[in-house]
Structures are given as structure tokens and as C-alpha cells.
Amino acid sequence: MPEIGLTRAKISTTAAGKDDLDSNSATGDQPQSSTTTSRDNSKMPAIRGADSKKKTRRHTRDLDQIHADLHSRRHLEQHIQQYDEAELPALGLFYCIPCAKHFESETNYAKHEKGKPHKRRVRQLKEEPYSQKEAEAAVGLTTDNGRKKDDEDMVAEDEVADEVR
Q: Region entry Disordered: which residue ranges (predicted)?
């Protein structure tokens, strides 16, 4: 016999003539078939790819922040106090300021200081970071009117222009 649909519950008639209440449709849910599976978010790829996830995980401090750490002890202490010492490698004893990295042992820290990435970062930090004023000047947002001309200078320029004609 055909299935009879109701608004809140789905009652189907079996071959024996008994009415059975489908438990899934009593709540308004559709029964899930064996082919439909729920998505497991842990296995889903990143929206922009796996490489993007790695990049965010490896994100280090910007050069201007590190430059401020090198020149201001207070700025460095504020940054280090953000982390719990118990969670840091070697309780935060071996910290490379230019690279903004913690190391597990003194030997790892010493090897790091001899390495190319550390030396490259130190070379980058020798250059002063750009200020906001310099950035605006490069774009052309500042006004450069020069020095104001005096009345005497204007008269002198007019005389020179008359002589040239």
C-alpha cells in the first residue's frame, strides 16, 4: 500500500495492515540514508590550501615590532609576559630577540645564532623601519610648499624676467 504523509508524523501502512510511526519523522527530521554522511571538519582542507595554514602557524613578529624590542626593554618585557613560562620551551630561558624565537637548549640557541636565517634577520634589523610620515610622503599625501617668498625676492624675480625679455 502507498505511504500516507501527515504534517508532523509519517505513518506508513505495512503489508500486515498495521500502522507504524516512523521515529525520525515524528520530530520533523528526514531519515539519513547510508550514502549520506556528515562532514568531518578535521579532514576538510583549508579554504586557501594547506600552505596557508602553515604560513599562519609560522607567523613571526614583524620587523618594526622586533626593532622596538631591541631599542626598548619595556616593549620586549611586555611581549614576553604574554606567554606562560611553563608552556615555553626551556621555560623561556633561550630566546632570540632578532628572530623572536624560543629554543629548547643552549646548544640549539648557539647553533641558531651561527645560522644563515639569524644572520639575515640581524642584517634586516640594522636598517631603520619606515615611519608613517615617510610612508605618507612616498604616496604624496604631504604638502611641500617650500619656503615662502618674501616681497623683495618676488620683485627681484620680476626684474630678472624683464631683463631676459
A: 1-68, 109-165
CA 64 to the chain's CA centroid = 16
3-class secondary-structure state, position 124:
helix
pTM: 0.46
Tens digits of per-residue pLDDT, 32-89? 554 545 555 556 655 666 666 666 666 677 888 888 888 888 888 888 887 777 888 8
Overall CATH class of domain 61-137: alpha beta
Can you give the residue ranges of every domain in the chain? 61-137
Strands (E), 64-114: 94-96, 101-103
- Nearest Cα residue to 112 out of 127, 91, 93, 98: 98
